[in-house]
Fold:
Amino acid sequence: MKRRIWWGTWVMLLTLLTGMSFASPASAEGLQEKIVYSKAVGDMGGREVFIANPDGTGEQQLTQTPSLDETHNQADEPVLSPDGKKIAYVSDWNGGSYEIWVMNVDGSDKVQITHNGMRNVEPVWSPDGSKILFSSACMGTDFEHCSGGDTSSDLWVYDINTNTFTNLTNTPDVYEESADWSPDGTKIVYSAYWKPGQFASNQWDLFIANADGTNPQPLMIDNKHEYHPKWTANDTIFFIRDDTVTSPNYQFGIYQFNLTTKTLSPLYSRNGWITRMAVNPNGNQIAFTSPSDGTYTMDLANPSPVQVLPAGSAIGDWGYAKQ
Ligand SMILES: [Ca+2]
Ligand SMILES: [Ca+2]
Structure:
């Protein structure tokens, strides 16, 4: 009798769970879970943007970049828009400087967004899809006519509806890179490099600020380098940390910081570089790139990496595509 009651409860639970998965917004809108990434192709070593299933199958090449020379023929750092229809990415083919571009998820209709000849990199869509946040060597407030170079970087936001660019940090003495939005779009997290003698010296640290760049606060200050934070829906920030004690014995780790409990947990450690990371839409799997070895995915409940892309690949994003 007791056994039968348990079975009944189990069936009910199963029905509930099955119903939930069918009711998820992704399947309702015809979205498919995909990874987007770049890969070195051809003899010149230029990079192109690709899309594939999260296990690496079903690969499609989305860019065919005209080659200027050995170094200027790149398409890299792709990110999927929240509605799954667009991809923002970085390319240097039109003039040799890195600029932000947007294309349809099938590779059609490529549009250049930035034109100022600065280093405009690491785009990321706002959760409502109306803005693109990126890092730029452009200093000041006039994006089209700015000074700069490789001496610093600021975070800029592009408003798609108004076609305007706004400098969120405006800090010539501090590098700001690899930003991400909070799931509700009200805050940003990013990696900042404070030059020696400043707030923290000679290290990259993670900061959280309001979405307009005001009130930047360190998430943690330490003597390691933290990069590529990803802010997920379950109030967790994942990031890469350089744990190298002495070069050339590089040791990199992937960590998670729980914003509710304020606890830092190591997830994975690797002998060698980890340069890029993405988190799946459910927040329970990670993709990361070791440039010499390839791109791996990893289940957070069972953190043993599975290789899905070859050496020379670089993960850009893990999200939904409407194809
Ligand atoms: Ca700056
Ligand atoms: Ca640090």
